[in-house]
Specification:
Largest sheet: 5 strands, antiparallel
Number of helices: 7
Number of strands: 7
Distance between the termini: 52 Å
Structural class: alpha+beta
Number of domains: 3
Radius of gyration: 19 Å
CATH topology of the largest domain: TATA-Binding Protein
CATH class of the largest domain: Alpha Beta
Strand order of the largest sheet: 3-7-6-5-4
Length: 195
Amino acid sequence: MSQRLLILSVSAGAGHVRAAQALEAAAKVANPPLEATHLDLLTLVPREFRKLYGEQYIKLVDRLPQLWSYLYTKTDRPSRDSLVGMAYVLQLMAETGKSVSQLVAEIPRYEIVKTKFECRREDANRAVEAVKKAFANEKVDTQDGIRIDWDRAWVHARPSNTEPIMRIIAEAPDRAKAEAKIAQVQEVVRRVLGS
């Protein structure tokens, strides 16, 4: 009897679906192969909710990344599901009687800066190790590339899983500080890769 794998995703944005598709593909070539079933959880809810959820999720991520970041951080538990985040927004709105705009106005403003550059996977792994060593005195998380946290800023550097690039993303109270954090990491990467 083959082993079975249930893959659950939410089709708001493409990332969840693509990750599920990658898991399905990996299951087929596993040794022994796994019988994979992919279930989009939004197919189990009424059409009106699915439409509302999908539209609001995209709007929240695109237009109010500070609120999404805040909720993501506050709900930092083993299950970081977007439905949970959306439920927290609705709960907070119900408890306070405030609109999303009013809630966002209360959150400190931060700027997110994203960069990427061509980088082979093996070079990216060397770069991550060099960044880890260079920032050893900071709060570092290496679960997915490397994330370095400071009091009011963070930077995340990671190789892409789908293309030969490395991404560096930073968040700080203003764009100049975020760009400065990225520059610090880029300098370490340039030294180790000789570029």
